[in-house]
Specification:
mainly alpha, two-stranded parallel ribbon
């Protein structure tokens, strides 16, 4: 058979072009093969542009929040009023610290945990209030807290050292990001460098030590570490950190990854047999990682056939009172937490303010159905505050349909 060389060359060229174009699409729109199965490792080769502000909210998000307030648009406006009325959102807030040494629990019978947690949340909430209202008094309060802690904190002590910079650090980092890009006259180059140096020398080494240590904890630890690490990568404009955060979320041998925390068939979570509070904490941290990445052009929400959505639906259903959710003994990666033989009723029905953000993504943005999460959202609107979470989701995560 005679080969038409012109057609042959055209076909070969077309195949080569498609391969290259496919690779470009892969890099541009997010690095994951969404058809992968549990045995496949994801090749992380995506480098973000790193948009600022870009930790949970970009300028378009902030403009959307301002629009909600200006138009008194419901249900978001009720969420805003809840944020506005919270004492930690006040520009008259009295700072409880700062402290040279941070620790959870108590040391020598003294506890400062509630004080710095209050300060970090006040910095975060005042930053949001400034972004929305543009009232400089909120910005001054937020930057005052951030700079004082940046100048003062020297170390983290005691037990649970990993949880302190991971759970609370993300709000601190979020506030720094907003103030840096929305209020540079207050978060000057000098102040920004002071605050970032504190984070890099005190907070980040704790996270990196955890990430390089063989798994030993329940999944909410790793999920919270990954959440704060990706937030820090955006703040520092560090693309290698960003890539490392994606690697951890997708491929790490830890209970706190999307693959290991949520069962792909049922949505059961690694801590479902422990209690519902820790389960919701783990899910919340995974979702924050997804939202930060999404704002930077990486779709982690859809990984493993929208596995995060399955975890939220499973947990929402059980906590709404349904007793027909499937349960099996969960084989965690450490082997230490694989003996819970039934789903835990502890903290059942105590809904954390974590559901609006994922509902906004999967339903408002993507047009998918989350019937049980929807029931939780409707039950708890407007979503309020809890110290471990960003909260106020009815207002903060409210894209137009």
């Amino acid at each position: 058979m005679r080969i038409d060389m012109k057609k042959y060359i055209f076909i070969i060229g077309l195949v080569f072009f498609c391969a290259i174009f496919s690779s470009c699409l892969k890099n541009e729109f997010g690095i994951v093969d969404l058809t992968m199965d549990d045995e496949e490792e994801v090749d992380v080769n995506y480098i973000p542009s790193l948009v600022h502000p870009g930790i949970l909210h970009t300028m378009s998000d902030i403009e959307r929040m301002r629009e909600i307030v200006a138009n008194q648009e419901e249900p978001g406006f009720s969420g805003y009023k809840k944020l506005e009325s919270d004492p930690l959102s006040s520009y008259d807030y009295s700072i409880q610290g700062p402290f040279e040494e941070l620790y959870r629990g108590n040391i020598g019978g003294v506890s400062i945990q509630g004080k710095y947690e209050s300060d970090f949340n006040a910095a975060y909430q005042n930053a949001v209030m400034y972004a929305v209202t543009q009232d400089e008094r909120y910005a001054k309060k937020s930057t005052e807290i951030l700079i004082k802690y940046g100048e003062t904190v020297k170390t983290i002590l005691g037990d649970d050292t990993t949880l302190l910079p991971s759970i609370m650090g993300v709000k601190f980092i979020y506030a720094v990001e907003l103030m840096r890009y929305l209020y540079p006259q207050g978060m000057t180059d000098e102040s920004f460098n002071i605050v970032c140096n504190m984070l890099k020398t005190v907070f980040i080494p704790v996270l990196e030590t955890f990430m390089s240590t063989p798994a030993y904890s329940n999944g909410n630890w790793g999920a919270s570490v990954g959440m704060t690490y990706i937030a820090a990568s955006v703040l520092f404009n560090d693309k290698e950190m960003y890539k490392k955060a994606l690697e951890f979320y997708l491929n790490a041998d830890d209970n706190g990854t999307i693959r290991n925390y949520i069962d792909g068939e049922t949505g059961q979570c690694q801590e479902s047999g422990r209690d519902q509070a820790h389960t919701q904490l783990g899910l919340a941290c995974l979702s924050v990682t997804c939202e930060i990445a999404y704002k930077q052009g990486t779709d982690l929400y859809s990984v493993l056939d929208n596995r995060l959505m399955k975890g939220f639906e499973y947990t929402a259903k059980y906590n709404l009172g349904y007793d027909d959710v499937p349960y099996s003994v969960f084989q965690d990666v450490t082997g230490k937490y694989s003996n819970w033989d039934k789903i835990s009723a502890q903290d059942r029905g105590e809904f954390r303010p974590i559901y609006e953000m994922v509902y906004n993504h999967y339903v408002n943005r993507k047009g998918l159905d989350m019937p049980y999460t929807q029931k939780v959202v409707e039950k708890n609107r407007p979503e309020g505050f809890y110290y471990e979470h960003f909260g106020f989701g009815t207002f903060l995560f409210n894209d137009k349909k």
